[in-house]
Amino acid sequence: MAQVRRLRAERALAEKQLQRERAALQAESERASLLRSEQTSAAESLSLEQQALDEARGRVEALSAEAAALAAQVESASGEIGPTERLLAEHAALKRAQADFKKECAAELKRLQQERRRQTEESTDEADVSDQEAELSRLLEAESARLIALKQQLAQRSREAGALQRRVDERPSRAELMQFERRYRELYRQLASKSEETKKYFSSFNALEEERGYLHKEVSLINSIHDNFAKAGAAPKDKLVESIEGLVQSVQVSLEKVQQRLRDDLRSKDVLQQQYDEMVDKQRKYYKLVREFQEEAQKLDQTFPP
Question: DSSP characters for 69-93?
Fold first, then answer.
């Protein structure tokens, strides 16, 4: 059970570490996405400003062409004083406007160059971010492989723990063992009682059968004596004596058989008594060992509670 708890703790720790790494990777990915969006917007802004600069240059060139045309008109119309002065005034105004516009274009160009340098620096930062993303991707792949290996190891440990748990569950608990023991004792007492009862029936049957045989022999003997006495007058005396001696010998043989059976029963009784004493001694030792085992089990439960 301690091994199962340790495996579960290792699994929880690995999952927490993986979640932290995933959160860090997601934060870096969001930062990279934000930098990409900023770079995209800056590139679009730079493109728009470049277009505006091109348009301004086009307007400057158009104004220059218009000023040249006006100068040509002034030279061609030297005879007309009024229109010439008006054209000269317009030319001067156009020159001033051209100068102001050039200043604006120069300022805009300077601003665009600064913006371009900033975009270049950000591109460098983006390259660093790309390197960081590659490094994070590599770390993510390594951690993913490590996580897969840990999951496989955890699955193997879980299978081993499951097998151990099944083996533990297959073994009966102390309460079940005690219940089995009580049930076995009850069954043993029932079987012993039934066996003793059956033996008594057999003994009674054998005794009654022997008694019936003896009574039958006694009746036969009495009938034989009665018949012999009835024939005593006609038969010789020696035959009567021989008949009676034969009956006595038959009774003597039966008596010896009964005495031999009694001696055999006494020997069997002594053997059974010795076996009974040995079984009582073993039972006493068994109860002593069971009591010691229960005491040790209680001490173990107190020392290492579940």
Answer: HHHHHHHHTTT-HHHHHHHHHHHHH
